[in-house]
Amino acid sequence: MSAQHTPAIAIAIAIACGGRDPVAGLPASASRRRRIAGTRYAVPIRPDMQTPMKYALAFAAALFVAPACATSIAPKPLEDLVRESDHVVVATVVGVDMVDGRGRALDDPAARTGPGSANRMSFELKVESVLFTRAGSLPPRIRVPLWSMWHYQLGTMREQVVGSRGIFLLKGVPLKGNRYEPAYPGGFQRPLEEREQIERLLPR
Fold first, then answer.
1. If 0-12 CB within 10 Å is exposed, 13-18 middle and 19+ buried, where does residue 6 land?
2. Which among 75, 121, 130, 137 has the fewest CB atoms less than 10 Å away?
3. Considering the entire predicted model, what is its pTM?
């Protein structure tokens, strides 16, 4: 797995956390000393975490934990997330889009989602392989809206996430307009290193 595809699955995602590191609660100045891939939205990592695999795990942790600094939800074990999923796919994020409350496309890099905003962000996924589905088949591309309460910024998400690969746990019935959504607002993106564990948890 190449380093250019691993980083942002987690999205060290420009989440507004009151000037503190979104994962560890460290002051922003301390966080910036431990950069990843040259970005200023960093996840604290130890000096020995140099391989792409370890970056993936660190970023995956960020994805699950970071948004909670703005709006809290109860975490779910991976076992529950997998059990509640209608589809589990390996995919690459090929696009990040945002619409306003009237469904009009937004392209301002500073546009945000979060409490009080009607904006909605979504990922466009290019499906590489289907690990599990309750449908007969899935389209090659899937659009997945993100929970609108997360504090996301369009420009930062595009910069950090497009091109990243991972395992996506989704809900949705293709026969109803090909509408998909995360299996749960937090933790629906998983690092590729969890594939073996996820496959053990899939229905047989």
1. buried
2. 137
3. 0.68
